[in-house]
Amino acid sequence: SVFGLPFGKQPPTDEINACTAALQMMEEIKTLNDERANACRPLIKMGLVIHSEQMFMGLGGAPPKQEFTLAGEAMETTRSLSKITQTYADGNVILVTEPTYRLVQDKFFFRFLDKVRITSTNLLTNIYELLGPDKESVDPILVHAAKCYFDAYGHYSAKRFPVALPLFKKAATMTMDPEENRAEGDKAAREMERRCLMFLSQGMENWNEGCHMVP
Q: pLDDT per residue over 149-168, tens digit each?
């Protein structure tokens, strides 16, 4: 989906609308998954990516086969990031890039996740998880785990892996909940555990600023 076409509204209106729509979608999926679980049917897993960037729009082709089309690096950014949503969650997740986060950070409750570089465009951005409309709407355990994860990532970025590793493990185990698709705990924290162990055992050859490299 694209918000702000054909005429964008004053920022951050479009970003607020996108985040609100994403949260509403997740609520509907949760309701649907409850029904599917009761019927012993597979659950739906969905990863969403919200990114803010200018795009080109127009009509392509010649009559009578003209089509409305969009173009720009924003398309490649969201396409690339959509491939890694399940790196950070076993269930449903909303990823938000730094440009969007800066515009709406005081309108919703987020947690920092990671720093990623998209190799096709060389874009470097922080990514965040949109957890709810406000802090009070989020499970306090998740809020506490998000703080622990953020502290751990600070040590990871400074290459203090022996300090970061137990904090990531703590963040993961705090959130174990089989009913919420978190039987192993927070998947993002488990991913960072894996990276810490990799750098401790293999050295810094593939450090790449600590980024998750996304093709």
A: 999 999 999 999 999 999 99
